[in-house]
Amino acid sequence: MSYRFAARLLVSVTPADVGQRVSLRRRLPTGEYSDVVGVLESWSDGMLRVRRRTDEVVEVPEGIVVAGKVVPPAPPRRRPRTE
Questions:
Q1: Distance CA 60, CA 57 (A)
Q2: Predicted local confidence at residue 10, as pLDDT
């Protein structure tokens, strides 16, 4: 017996989630998908601004977001071991 599953994309992020860590999947002009994970800093005038762990701010037009959700805080970074 074989099963076929259709992926269902869901955007559950809203402007009320500003300040939360989110994962967004966006569709690029090339047709490819790209993910952005970080803290949603703002959502205004159709633009989402997400600050990544690297401190880079990525602007994502809401019209290209195909999936998104609030995710748990990032785990703490490990310090290099010194011996």
A1: 10
A2: 85
